[in-house]
Amino acid sequence: MLVSASCTTNNKAPSSEGTPYNAKVDSLMNLMTLQEKIGQTVMYSGGWSVTGPTVSSNNKKFIKEGAVGAMLNVYSVKGTRELQRLAVEETRLGIPLLFGYDVIHGFKTIFPINLGLAASWDLEDIEKGSRIAAEEASAEGIHWTFAPMVDIARDPRWGRISEGAGEDVYLGSEIAKAYVKGFQGDDLSKHNTILACAKHFVGYGAAQAGRDYHTVNMGYDELRNVYLPPFKAAVDVGVETFMTAFNEVNGVPATGNKFIFRDVLRDEWGFKGFVVTDYTAINELVEHGFAEDEKHATELAIKAGIDQDMMSSANRLYLEALVNEGKVDVKLIDDACRRILLAKYKLGLFEDPYRYCDEQREKEMVYKPEFLEAARQTAAMCSVLLKNEDKALPLDKNETIALIGPLARDKENILGNWAAAGDRKGRAISVYQGIQEYLSDSKIVFAKGCNIEGEDQSGFDQAIKAARKADKVVMVMGEDYDMSGEAASRTNIKLPGRQTDLIKAIRKAVPNKAIILVLMNGRPLDLSEEDTLADAILETWFPGTSGGYGVADVLFGAYNPSGKLPVTFPRTLGQIPIYYNMKNTGRPIPPDDPKEDYKSNYIDVPNTPLYPFGHGLSYTTFEYGNLELSGETIGMSDTLTASVTVTNTGDYDGHEVVQLYIHDKVGSITRPVKELKGFKKIFLEKGQSKRVSFELSPKDLEFYNNEAFVIEPGAFEIAIKGTSDFDFEHSFNLE
Ligand code: GLC
After folding, report:
1. How do residues 222-252 score in pLDDT, each as one tens digit?
2. Which atom, in ligand 1's list, is nearest to the CA of 197?
3. DSSP one-letter string for 572-624
4. What is the CB < 6 Å shell around ligand 1?
5. Catalytic residue (choose from 168, 278, 309, 553)
6. Does residue 278 have an active-site annotation?
7. CATH assignment of 377-573, among 3.40.50.1220, 3.40.50.1700, 3.30.70.20, 3.40.50.150
8. CATH fold of 622-734, please?
9. pTM of the model
């Protein structure tokens, strides 16, 4: 067994120490009073788009006192310039403010929600979308985004599953890197780059019962092998900030957790940026039962390595007294202040505090046509074709369609949750408008049919009439944008309201017509009923500002769908948590006899999901040829090459996400039945074949076994497929 370097030496992140600014920061800090240093560790909200319980504070008064280091939820050149002027021109030292905002999947040009972006498996496009978001946000005075959210999530009850990259550690880690590179670019001193923020550190997605903010308790093997790696990936590409999670981690709330912030983040990973709390999270240490009072909470947070306090007022109210009482070493405040000042220097704010306040750039950058076009293409790429019987899709321009459902003409929910400064009042393109690009109005018979929520079925008759007049039925349904995101957990993950009843009514009315269900939702849904009713199901998540165009491009075949699920869709809530890379257990169901007694199964539903991780259909078909390995056995210093030929055997050109999976058959702790270890998105014209190869090194097989990071010799299974739903047929040995 090789005990990997990971646990003994620091995998140093690109260090910000020795940056050209250290001397400048030191000389500035020598001029600062303790109160002014504490001021840098305080963030208040401008209250423009409240993202949490607002705590009243007289922002301008505190800014002028030098008691504030950053503001969130303030944007626009005018809005940020006004507050920046107070900081720069009306305080003793003129230290500029940082302006932060939740630019999660776009600033004004809104892209599909992040779970949808993950479904594209297109790292280049994810980076490009984040770059566009940074261009728009920086043009409106924003220096810092509270993104990417890199929380692994395996419970669709949890509303914030919508904000991340789904259930898999490898996919989540690769996507984390793409976001950070997109937001931060290659030079933070440029005025179109912004600080990124890896959040929420750590384990937030494992909230018990999928209930937001709930307790998180897990083995250190799961913490190290599943929930920590995407954050490490962000550090490896130089993410400048981290945000604490609201939850406790094994009894210690993240915002007071020395192990994760000092031992892991700083000592093991070498992170040199700064850590901000989530909204009022310091004060919440009292509610957690971890702090006696807010003053004690303040002491615990700074000692845990937390640098900046978002909206608790804790640092402003208590840090000076804690120092004077000898409870907090002033060095801790110096360290926090230094990290925050360093970020401001990197952004060039001391050189020009108004460099992100350019009216001309604001006019030019926001809603640029190429940004809106990019959002259209991304919306198409994120769509996942879950089902397509009898070639119900693509639609034919000569056919008349009935367009039914509460989200068919929607221009508000289509942006999804966390839509930053996106316009919910009409700018977004609805699916109806997208379809109008392909069909004249005479070929579209619209009927809303029902609302997203509520019991009203009075619209059913009109919808049935529309269906009877048409050749095919397109039903656009799903959730309200507020049904996912923060504080939006659901105990029922079916379509809300009477939407499923409407589908049943249409199916009954036109039993032989194709029904195409188009979904907008922020989580995996229980679609077991819909799967029996619809001929085709297209998952579009919440596709954003240009979403209607992108969805229509897929519906009419202008874009051949290529999305793959980043998260499992269960058959029923009762299966949760269910994800592809589970453990085998000592009593797995034998594949040839699923009904055998005393095995790890349910008596009422199969163990398998409705739609598995990595699943996504195309209008064409792809064939995977025999896997070839560069060797049956590799040593600890070797690399294995695995290759397969992929052929487009259907009638459409298209993209395919080719996925590499392994299975470590025996380990010093049990290993998942499958693990994604690589993927490549390729394009094949109809009839074309391509050889696709992956390199696998022993380092790729490393895991934490509750004592150390290890790479263990033994037998491994390997496969290259277009989904996680397969049985292994090949293996190799690691010596
Ligand atoms: C919220 C969220 C966090 C967000 C922050 C600022 O409560 O948990 O993701 O970045 O507040 O809006």
Report:
1. 999 999 999 999 999 999 999 999 999 999 9
2. 10
3. SGGG-S--TT----SSPPPTT-TT-SSSS--SSS-SS-SB-TT--B-SS-EEE
4. 51-52, 72, 102, 146, 199, 278-279, 486
5. 278
6. yes
7. 3.40.50.1700
8. Immunoglobulin-like (2.60.40)
9. 0.96
